[in-house]
Write a structure and sequence with these properties.
It is built from six helices and 13 strands. The chain is α+β, with helices and mostly antiparallel strands and 228 residues long.
């Protein structure tokens, strides 16, 4: 039986084995998300990544491999490393109570375009519109406009990742992100799963996550590759 700790060490791999199995593409022993959903991949053995990455470029030209401490091997003639993001994984230790002053709405399929537009406004680059299908998304509206969201991304039978925490630039510093993270975390706990999240090392938001009861547990690194 695979332990929770083992799953946390390779969250993409185990998400694709469990809750997100319907989104999985297996290529030569490396697992990837359907690129219409997400552009993450994961592996167990580094010598499997060379052929697999070459094949995945037939489906999408830019993508990430995610790993705690292993470095993928690539075909330099076909693949280029664009950047490595030094990240960390955080897990809920002891949830801090936060006063919820805003109405937080469970978003539906009709909000998918609004979610996409808001994420690309604040964090352009890698979110796919069908990423909305990975889990629940929650939002705050002002004047009938979606101005802040939080969502769920990687999932297994044991954990759910909090992700896509975004606030419109005109509405920052009002505590919306804090309330959304708190709400999303509580919803995960209702499912008897461990709330986790990932972020870049040195991200100022880490202070907020820690205040809400999360703690850093390990490195979790992203290698962004592109097709030559």
């Amino acid at each position: 039986m695979i332990t929770l700790e083992e799953k946390l060490k390779n969250p993409v791999w185990h998400s694709l084995n469990e809750t997100h199995k319907k989104f999985a593409i297996m290529l030569d022993g490396v697992q990837f998300y359907n690129p219409e959903i997400n552009n993450f991949g994961a592996f167990l053995e580094t010598d499997k990544t060379i052929k697999a990455l070459n094949k995945y470029t037939e489906k999408t030209e830019r993508f990430f491999l995610v790993s705690e401490d292993q470095t993928p091997i690539i075909d330099d003639n076909k693949i280029v490393l664009e950047k490595k993001i030094n990240g960390c994984q955080m897990v809920l230790d002891n949830l801090t109570d936060v006063e919820i002053t805003e109405e937080i709405i469970l978003l539906t399929q009709k909000n998918m375009d609004e979610v996409y537009d808001l994420i690309w406004l604040v964090m352009p680059g890698f979110y796919q519109k069908r990423g909305f299908e990975m889990g629940n998304f929650y939002g705050i509206f002002k004047n009938n406009k979606l101005i802040a969201i939080s969502g769920q991304r990687m999932q297994t039978d044991d954990f759910i990742e909090v992700s896509s925490v975004v606030t419109h630039p005109n509405y920052t510093r009002r505590g919306f992100a804090k309330q959304l993270i708190q709400h999303t975390t509580k919803e995960i706990l209702k499912e008897n799963k461990l709330p986790i999240l990932h972020t870049n090392k040195g991200n100022p938001a880490i202070e907020l996550y820690e205040k809400l009861g999360y703690k850093i547990t390990r490195d979790m690194n992203w290698w962004l590759y592109g097709k030559k």
